[in-house]
Design goal:
The chain has about 300 residues and is of the alpha+beta class. The protein has six helices and 18 strands. Helix content is about 20%, strand content about 35%. The longest helix has 14 residues.
Length: about 300
């Protein structure tokens, strides 16, 4: 059922054993056969205490499905700890993809000459700790001012496959946005043509000859006399699309000075990519990741209306 290929001890509280799965099974079934000196209750306790990884992901579900070729690693001396990096949190990682939650203010991707810290550089450093020649490949971008979920590919073929399927799924990605003022229409679609100036400012207009068509859907979640919280999806992916569209209806996103915001109650731009969907290029499974509503968004309103 499994082939043991690594057992190591590199210091106090660091004993680990790794196994390659040779046939499909469930995690608990595999552990009961493999870890002969531990009872069923002890193994379940180790699951609860986060002492097992499948690939790079910490697994706590006893019925997690294992596939032939999966790598299972056991930490004998305590829980695996997720690595922490300033400005990002790793949500999911396997051999092909890595999903992160990015904070507002951190660049997603810079140029080769970019000296500032970027999410791309942080995650590249992360994967190169295991493989010094590992490379990271971009799937999509998230504005510096935005926070939320991003997905990267860990090899070129995955990038190609994921970008192809991305066109089928990106419209399901869900943004949370806080705008200035009270938006009257609770549900609406904004359609226009976007054009970028030489100063890198994007403008919204009605002339198809002067821009690319952009479609944004939104629905209001909560509003008061000062601000509106809404959910937004995009039928097109254009640079700064949601930011420009909300400015065009007279309700710029809070903290977004570039697009005429005057209010900044949370000391950041109020846009967050909360939910992301894509098809895993290796397993062809539908993947969906969702983050919590940012606490600073909730503080703007009096009640925890959104859970």
């Amino acid at each position: 059922m499994a082939k043991k290929f690594n057992s190591k001890k590199t210091g106090k509280k660091s004993r680990q054993s790794s196994y390659t799965i040779t046939e499909d099974t469930e995690l608990l079934k595999f552990l009961l056969i493999t870890v002969k000196d531990k009872s069923r209750n002890k193994i379940k306790a180790m699951l609860t205490h986060k002492q097992f990884k499948v690939g790079k992901e910490i697994i706590t579900q006893y019925n997690h499905e294992l596939k032939k070729g999966d790598e299972v690693t056991i930490s004998w001396d305590g829980a695996f700890k997720k690595e922490k990096y300033e400005g990002i949190k790793i949500i999911f990682e396997d051999d092909d993809i890595i999903v992160i939650d990015k904070k507002s203010g951190l660049l997603s991707i810079g140029s080769e000459k970019e000296k500032k810290l970027t999410a791309y550089r942080i995650i590249t450093h992360h994967i190169q700790q295991e493989n010094p020649v590992a490379r990271l490949f971009v799937i999509h971008r998230l504005d510096r001012e935005a926070s939320g979920l991003m997905v990267f590919a860990k090899n070129k073929q995955t990038q190609v496959d994921l970008k192809d399927s991305w066109q089928q799924t990106f419209s399901k990605n869900l943004y949370l946005v806080v705008t200035e003022g009270t938006i009257e229409k609770d549900v609406d679609t904004i359609t226009s043509f976007l054009n970028e100036s030489k100063a890198l400012i994007v403008y919204s207009g009605n002339n198809p000859k002067l821009g690319k068509k952009a479609i944004t859907n939104y629905s209001v979640v909560k509003k008061n006399e000062f601000f509106t919280l809404l959910e937004a999806t995009q039928e097109t992916e254009r640079k700064h699309q949601i930011r420009v569209h909300l400015k065009s209806i007279g309700h710029p996103i809070i903290g977004d000075k570039k697009y005429d915001a005057k209010e900044n109650p949370i000391n950041r731009t109020g846009i967050h990519l909360r939910k992301i969907n894509f098809i895993h290029p290796a397993t062809e499974q539908k993947m969906e990741f969702e983050t919590k509503v940012p606490e600073d968004f909730l503080k703007i309103f009096r009640h925890n209306f959104y859970r």
